[in-house]
Design brief:
Layout (H helix, E strand, L loop, with lengths): L1 H17 L3 H24 L3 H11 L4 E5 L2 E4 H18 L7 E5 L4 H12 L3 E4 L6 H11 L3 E5 L3 H13 L3 E5 L8 E3 L1 H6 L18 E7 L7 E6 H14 L6 E4 L6 H13 L2 E4 L8 H7 L4 E5 H9 L13 E5 L3 H11 L3 E6 L8 E2 L9 E2 L2 H6 L2 E4 L1 E2 L4 E2 L16 E6 L13 H6 L1 E3 L7 E11 L4 E7 L3 E4 L2 E4 H8 L5 E9 L8 E8 L7 H11 L8 E4 L14 H6 L10 E5 L4 E4 L2 H8 L6
Parallel strand pairs: 1-11, 3-4, 3-5, 4-8, 5-6, 6-7, 10-11, 10-12, 12-13, 13-14, 27-28
Antiparallel strand pairs: 1-2, 8-9, 14-15, 16-23, 17-20, 18-19, 20-22, 21-22, 22-23, 24-25, 26-27, 28-29, 29-30
Helix pairs in contact: 2-9, 4-5, 6-7, 9-10, 12-13
């Protein structure tokens, strides 16, 4: 027996010296497997996030749940207000079990009461990005399958713009106000104030399983308009457990300044319910208010995207930079240099960089704290959560395959496409009402004949030390200001301007900024001149701020492939440098409300950070 113990000890020591992260890898895998086992148990009993919320309310009814401005909402308050919201929907007679309601509002507590209330009556919600307008708004609403829209009072102008089209489809529209002056639009808050706060019968949601949709969250994906990714109640549990895996505990106070209509923001809300903690909710991210809020609410955990951390590091230094209780930051997209600056300036905050996607079935967490990485690759993790990084042709946007038709795994240090196996425990629900785009995400015969994997649409690389790094996004989508920008949608909008004939939209790197800024190579309509003011006004009216092209390049013709696809690689490589480009270049100038010529002086001011993007 002693001999076997010695052999085992020697084996473990060998593994440790070959891989100093071995024990941490095993420890994290154990936590992840334990979480998976818990979700499996919940699936057998149909125990949802809503059920966990109801139990949490019984356990600590007077504990603060949402801190918003100077308002405090306890778990009991949330229970009663969500009951009231549910009753407004019930009494309207508009909904039946399984229906979806579209929510068009920003960060405010009623967002959460509405979602909880809808699940209580066996329905789901589609979360509309409150920055979308016109054609995009109608598209997103239509693909949700909803027949009811609830919108914030401050978004009534955006609703009025599309109201005729909604009424044509016999859609019922509620505005979150006490009184509404617009004909054919109903007020919601006055009805909610008069509704009963008594608990609702569980029978109203008896048909729900953990495979039923809990919400639809929109993602740009790889092409076209935003797509609605179905988030089942089981997927919501997986999302909720992510912050626990990252190190959150029941004593924490979580600060959410990211949009609730995004996965990241809603993840925080679901995680708070799972751990029974308090959430400090902000209407939106404010660089000047961020640390003041953290101090005011005694925040211990923050969520981020890369841009947030950069904005915070770019503010003037203050004597009280380290006067806070934040111990943990969880998010994605932070650059290595910003990571170092953040820790150096704001103290020993543990940063847990993650990788995940709204519609994805796989995620990574950098539990080791290696600066710049999104996670680790280990044979144990692959064994229980099958995935691979495969070689990928970025020109044709297809995986490379060997002579037998199987995909080829990328070498260490080589960027490749991340794929994850689709299975009962890691399903891919697809996009609501878009079978074609859903099928595009599925890859067959990846590592063996007959297998099925999800194409994440992301390029990652695994280094020799088995740390994994995010490389880039694949296809016609780039990321700017924390948002995915679909180039086809932007091109469609731009070419609505009379003077523009064609547009090829892509993202370009700007020094000092995460992601890529929008740029469009355009050709002009014969006989018309470029109308810079008209183009500015058009993109301002029809595109959210993050999707508006920052740069325009006027060409005599656009290069295309043999199948008439626009060529982007060369344009991306050339960027927006007037020293290298002879075509006329323009820059979106917010102050002049126009596209102004991009001179060498302006280029230098942009690249040096003196002109803010």
């Amino acid at each position: 027996m002693l001999v076997w113990i010695v052999f085992a000890a020697v084996g473990l020591l060998t593994l440790f010296f070959r891989n100093p992260h071995f024990f941490r890898d095993v420890q994290f895998l154990r936590k992840k497997l334990k979480t998976t086992s818990r979700i499996l148990k919940y699936m057998q009993t149909n125990y949802s996030i809503l059920d966990r919320f109801i139990d949490a309310e019984k356990e600590h009814p007077h504990k603060p749940f949402i801190l918003f401005g100077d308002e405090i909402f306890t778990y009991r308050d949330a229970e009663e207000l969500s009951n009231k919201a549910a009753r407004v929907f019930l009494q309207s007679g508009l909904l039946k079990q399984g229906d979806t309601v579209a929510l068009f509002l920003g960060n405010e507590p009623v967002f959460l009461w509405l979602w909880l209330g809808l699940v209580k009556i066996g329905c789901s919600a589609a979360f509309l990005n409150c920055d979308i307008r016109s054609k995009s708004l109608l598209h997103c609403f239509k693909c949700s399958g909803a027949r009811t829209l609830v919108a914030a009072e401050e978004l009534q102008d955006a609703v009025d713009e599309v109201l005729p089209a909604l009424l044509e489809q016999q859609v019922t529209v509620f505005i979150l106000t006490d009184r509404c002056q617009t004909a054919d639009v109903k007020s919601f808050k006055d009805q909610m104030s008069h509704a009963s706060s008594e608990p609702l019968s569980k029978d109203l949601r008896s048909h729900l399983t953990l495979r039923s949709p809990a919400a639809y969250i929109y993602t740009s994906g790889t092409t076209g308009f935003p797509k609605a990714a179905a988030i089942s109640h089981a997927k919501l549990w997986q999302v909720a457990c992510y912050l626990s895996l990252a190190g959150i505990n029941s004593d924490d106070v979580l600060y959410i300044s990211l949009p609730l209509y995004h996965t990241t923001g809603f993840l925080g809300f679901a995680s708070a319910i799972d751990r029974g903690i308090t959430v400090a909710l902000s209407r939106k991210f404010s660089v000047s208010q961020f640390w003041n809020d953290c101090r005011k609410y005694d925040v211990t955990v923050i969520q981020y995207i890369g841009e947030i951390m950069r904005y915070l590091c770019n503010t003037p230094k203050k004597p009280n930079d380290r006067s806070h209780k934040v111990r943990l930051a969880v998010g994605n997209g932070i650059r290595a240099d910003v990571w170092r600056d953040f820790i150096s300036r704001f103290g020993n905050v543990k940063i847990r960089e993650c990788y995940a996607a709204t519609e994805g079935n796989f995620g990574l967490i950098n539990y080791s704290g290696k600066i710049g990485a999104v996670g680790r690759d280990s044979f144990l993790h692959r064994r229980y959560f099958p995935h691979a990084v495969i070689r990928f042709d970025v020109e044709t946007e297809t995986p490379l395959r060997d002579s037998s038709g199987l995909c080829i795994e990328a070498a260490k240090g080589e960027p490749g496409l991340l794929v994850s196996e689709i299975s009962l425990m890691a399903p891919f629900s697809g996009y609501m009402g878009d079978l074609q785009q859903s099928e595009k995400k599925r890859l067959h015969d990846v590592l063996r004949k007959g297998d099925l994997y999800l194409n994440t649409g992301d390029l990652l690389r695994i280094e020799e030390d088995n740390f994994i790094y995010f490389q880039d996004r694949v296809g016609d989508t780039f990321r700017w200001k924390g948002e995915n920008v679909a180039t086809t949608e932007v091109a469609d909008v731009i070419t609505m301007v009379d003077c523009i004939k064609e547009a090829n939209v892509y993202g370009v790197e700007v020094p000092g900024h995460e992601g890529r800024a929008g740029m469009a190579a355009i050709t002009l309509t014969e006989g018309l001149r470029f109308d810079s003011a008209a183009v500015f006004k058009h993109v301002e009216n029809f595109l959210p701020a993050y999707a508006r092209p920052r740069f325009l390049r006027i060409q005599s013709s656009l290069d295309v492939t043999g199948t008439f696809k626009h060529l982007k690689m060369k344009l991306v490589a050339e960027g927006f440098n007037p020293n290298q480009i002879t075509d006329p270049l323009y820059f979106l100038d917010e102050k002049d409300k126009s596209y102004v010529p991009l001179t060498v002086d302006k280029f230098n001011l942009i690249t040096s950070g003196q002109i803010k993007m």
